[in-house]
Amino acid sequence: MMVEGIYISALLTGLFGGVHCLGMCGGVVGALTFSLEVKNQASWWRMLPFQLAYNGGRILSYLLIGALFGSLGMLLNSLATLLPFQQLLQVFAGLFMIALGLYLAGWWQGIVVVERIGQGLWQKLAPYAQRMRTVKNIRQAGLYGLVWGWLPCGLVYSMLILALSSGGAFEGAMVMLAFGLGTLPNLLLIGAFAFYFTRLARKTWVKAIAGLSVVVMGLWQIYLAMVVSVN
């Protein structure tokens, strides 16, 4: 149940974290759709393969880094007492998700400090992302998403900590796959209705619901870790 619970938490966090996705990736997705429609004079439905390719590339990046963190967690587990250390990582992931939920709700901005950790890497990748903005085919859209998957993001970081506690490379990759699939509906809808969803995400009640949902997911992760320790 512990691993299955992690996957469910990752999926729901991706879904409820759509408010954050609007700020981090929504502009990219909306601009991608808009630029393609202008160039090709096509409807959004004709642009759907490009959106899927972009998101496929983004999720592939999540899979790769999830496998890396899962492998690192397995290595750390082998150097410590397996179960207690894994539980500690899961509790830490839960606490991070609670902090993220407070940030999404607009009640605490501490998570911004964590997002700055990845700025060094992103500064090296940003020029490539800028050059890829002129998307002409599906392959380029996929490559564009592959680069944007490394954008510094507290939501992604919280899932990477969860991947670290998952127990292995495959499990870590599956955590990030579940998370990526959870973000997919929001970002596809953003591509179609960017203006409407941007306005909606700014509403206080929407941010509060999204933030509280992620807080609940964080509390659930801590509960799962505690249940394992009791059993």
What this model shows, in words?
The protein has 231 residues and is mainly alpha-helical. The chain has one domain (2-230). 84% of the residues lie in helices and 0% in strands. It has eleven helices and no strands. α2 packs antiparallel against α10 (194-201) and α3 (44-78) packs across α8. The protein is globular. Keywords: Membrane, Transmembrane, Transmembrane helix. This is Sulfite exporter TauE/SafE family protein. The chain crosses the membrane at residues 6-38, 59-85, 91-114, 141-164, 176-197, 209-230. Residues 10-220 form the Urease accessory protein UreH-like transmembrane domain. It holds the Pfam family DsbD_2.
- Summed over residues and divided by their number, the pLDDT gives a mean of 77
Q: Characterize the overall form.
A: globular
Helix-and-strand structural type? mainly alpha
Largest sheet: none
Number of H/I helices: 11
Share of helix among residues? Answer: over 70%
Number of strands: 0
Low-confidence stretches: 37-41
Radius of gyration: 18 Å
Order of helices and strands: HHHHHHHHHHH
Distance, first to last CA: 12 Å
Beta-strand percentage? under 5%
How many domains, in number, for the residues? 1
